[in-house]
Design a protein that fits this description.
Length: about 160
């Protein structure tokens, strides 16, 4: 699983209430959720995010409520991967369940800057900042997680018979 994109960077404790504000939880439409992604934290996010972009963030990304809407909004906005120092556990599992690739790598989260172009190979656990030439190692995704993400999420993988 390889991802290449430009970095949008955030700090510590980005909670689900700023990823997708509660006032938009009355919809399950992915495009509608994406149109409000990060708006309480970063009013420019929706206008500048491009398909394939990558978010880097600090500690405890996705803290707060357990709403599945948060990783859905991120994925639907075009973000292909989130690299953070750490994730709230429920957000981590929700992201995998909906097919959003996420990886913990504190060194990359610190070392990569806003706007850098990054390539991540999650099969090998290598993250390369193509702008600076720096490389970072992380644990590769287990094969079953790769299958879930490649198939668009847990339910899709089960429906296809990929995961039993």
């Amino acid at each position: 699983m390889k991802y290449t994109g430009n970095i949008i960077k955030y700090g510590d404790n980005v909670d689900t209430d700023v990823i997708i504000p509660a006032r938009y939880l009355n919809t399950s439409d992915h495009a509608e959720l994406a149109s409000h992604c990060m708006e309480d934290l970063d009013k420019t996010f929706v206008s500048r995010v491009q398909q394939g972009d990558i978010i880097t963030a600090g500690w405890n990304f996705g803290c707060g409520s357990s709403r599945e809407h948060a990783p859905i909004a991120i994925k639907a906005s075009g973000i292909s991967l989130v690299i953070a120092k750490s994730f709230a556990r429920i957000f981590y599992r929700n992201a995998i369940n909906i097919g959003l690739a996420i990886v913990e790598c504190p060194e990359a989260a610190d070392g990569i800057s806003e706007g850098d172009k990054v390539e991540a190979d999650l099969d090998s656990g290598m993250i390369r900042d193509l702008t600076t030439g720096k490389e970072y190692r992380t644990a590769p995704f287990p094969e079953f997680v790769q299958r879930i993400i490649e198939n668009g999420g847990l339910m899709e993988a089960v429906a296809k018979g990929i995961i039993k």
